[in-house]
Amino acid sequence: MKEDMVKLISAEGFEFVIDKKAAMVSQTIRNMLTSPGSFAETEHGEVTFPEISTTILEKICQYFYWSLQYAR
């Protein structure tokens, strides 16, 4: 996976590979990916959401791209 991409994994195990800039719309994901130390999220660019279903995570990803494009 490219360094400018991030993998978000839903509760069911579906993987969404999105642009890191889009993922950084979320302050929570930004903190997970940029926190100091050797966390799996930081090292592999992957964030697992065991509480978030695939359909909801898909909408979240769509929102990230929408926000990146229009919310400036």
Automatic annotation (TrEMBL):
<feature type="domain" description="SKP1 component POZ">
    <location>
        <begin position="4"/>
        <end position="65"/>
    </location>
</feature>
<dbReference type="InterPro" id="IPR016073">
    <property type="entry name" value="Skp1_comp_POZ"/>
</dbReference>
<dbReference type="InterPro" id="IPR001232">
    <property type="entry name" value="SKP1-like"/>
</dbReference>
<dbReference type="GO" id="GO:0006511">
    <property type="term" value="P:ubiquitin-dependent protein catabolic process"/>
</dbReference>
<dbReference type="GO" id="GO:0005634">
    <property type="term" value="C:nucleus"/>
</dbReference>
<keyword id="KW-0539">Nucleus</keyword>
<dbReference type="Pfam" id="PF03931">
    <property type="entry name" value="Skp1_POZ"/>
</dbReference>
<keyword id="KW-0648">Protein biosynthesis</keyword>
<keyword id="KW-0251">Elongation factor</keyword>
<dbReference type="InterPro" id="IPR011333">
    <property type="entry name" value="SKP1/BTB/POZ_sf"/>
</dbReference>
<dbReference type="GO" id="GO:0009867">
    <property type="term" value="P:jasmonic acid mediated signaling pathway"/>
</dbReference>
<comment type="pathway">
    <text>Protein modification; protein ubiquitination.</text>
</comment>
<comment type="similarity">
    <text>Belongs to the SKP1 family.</text>
</comment>
<protein>
    <recommendedName>
        <fullName>Elongin-C</fullName>
    </recommendedName>
</protein>
<dbReference type="GO" id="GO:0003746">
    <property type="term" value="F:translation elongation factor activity"/>
</dbReference>
<dbReference type="InterPro" id="IPR039948">
    <property type="entry name" value="ELC1"/>
</dbReference>
